[in-house]
Amino acid sequence: MASPKASKEDQVQALFTKLAPLIKGQQHKKAVRTIDSILKLQPGDQDAVKCKVAVLLEGSSFQEALEYINALPANSFQFEQAYALYRLNRLQDSLQILAQNMPDTPAKSLLEAQLQHRLGNYTAAIATYNKLVQQHKVKSLEVGTNVVAAYVSGGRAHEVPAVMDALALKASDGFEIAFNQACADVAVGKLDAAEQQLLLAQRLGRETLYEDDVPEEEVEAELAPLTSQLAYVASRLGRSEEASTSYQDLLTKHQAEENVLAVVQNNLLALQSGTQSHQKRFAGEALKKFEGLMDSERPGLLLPGLEARLSEHQKQALHTNHALLLLLTSNSKACQLKLDLLKTRYLGSAALALVEASLLVKDGSLAAADKLLTGLQSDRPVISLQAVLMRAQMAVTNDDQAQAINILDSITDEEVRHKPAVLATQLALQEQQPNLAGAISTVQEGLTWWQNSMTADETEKSTAQSWLQQQIVQLQLKAGDRQSASQAFQKLQSLDRTSAASAKMLGQLARASAQGNPQQALALQSNLPPLPKLT
Fold this sequence. Notes:
Blueprint: H1 8-24, H2 28-41, H3 46-58, H4 62-70, H5 78-87, H6 91-98, H7 106-118, H8 122-134, H9 141-153, H10 160-166, H11 175-187, H12 191-211, H13 216-222, H14 224-236, H15 240-253, H16 258-273, H17 279-291, H18 304-309, H19 312-328, H20 332-345, H21 350-362, H22 366-374, H23 381-397, H24 401-409, H25 414-417, H26 420-432, H27 436-452, H28 458-478, H29 482-495, H30 497-500, H31 503-514, H32 518-525
Helix pairs in contact: 1-2, 2-3, 3-4, 4-5, 5-6, 6-7, 7-8, 8-9, 9-11, 11-12, 12-14, 14-15, 14-16, 15-16, 16-17, 17-19, 19-20, 19-21, 20-21, 21-22, 21-23, 22-23, 23-24, 24-26, 26-27, 27-28, 28-29, 31-32
């Protein structure tokens, strides 16, 4: 300790000497007290002021850092001020500080890009990241990872391969970039590829974190987003039980941050919603869980921790499902109030419009619902599909099957037009008329499209073709065209012998063929599976 007789300069120097190891050892509170002692001896010392701002930020004392900076002369530490606001989730305020007359540095551009991303301004975020790479020549793995994330969030996932090539990035460079590439694959429907990328990301993540001596429970928490995304992909690939078990395991262990658990809870409820026999009771239980994510003191907002950590896309999904649950539990007034709050925040949201249309249908305003849904048909394929099917369902409810068929026939987007859900609906309506010739034509057109599709995932493509070929067999049998049915069945066998070896379908075809061609019936019956052995 400095002698009482030591000069002020010597005391200050001694305190700076004491400060260095405190900062290096990340003893932030002791470091701040030491800096305050320096400033008491030498008010306004610029080195001490700089150290205090840096130590407060490094110690995550963002509110204290902001208050300290605000008390300094105007325009001091603008970047640090913007960063503190960013960490306090005051995103617009942070962006306004950056918009002032500040030097255009890589750090400023990186923070601006992150802000734009968090605010959902993905086009602006991508432009800023491009400036970082092209103008500032920044080509770090962190920036590259963020660039890919911005393209995925901004609905430009199909551009990710070219972007990664331009930035010389590979999925094997790190688990974060592998995860983001997997998200891009999910967005464009390449589910098998996405699953492989996620497994790679999981392996790389474990290796990296174990090398850093991170404890096992923290490793699981760090990799929880990957586990959640693997479960989501499994559900998309039809492995619902596996996905449900994985989601429930994450919730039970609670080894993840609250924003990840909120997404897991949302996905699990969405997965379970189609399997519950008592839908209203299930919706009531789900609503209670969603209410726990909402800020009761700030209508239209999630809990503060979720507001700070979730992306705008994730927040919108949670809010939309909350509104849907209000609707399903007959809380129409609460649902309308929720929608009114959200429509100003998420202007032009197609997902919210679908909920609003459902509310209009429930209230008997079919014309208004149909008008709203018609405006959505030029939107994204998934939303367009939901809007079309809802309009068709409304027409069927009104016992106007011809109108329902016209609605489905009016689809111009080829990908939407040939979705299995659309084809199945068309097929059911045409069989009810009955219009077997039209149904056969619809299925054959769909089969041709799927055979020539260059964008569909291979698993999805194979499943669709097999299902369509089965429908052709059934329709040809109903039409009494045994020869065409037999030819269609042989094509089905070449696609998928396992699903083709259905005893019911083979039996139907064999019985029909026996009336005109006994030899063909015997050949078909040879494909029937053996009877189980008696025990």
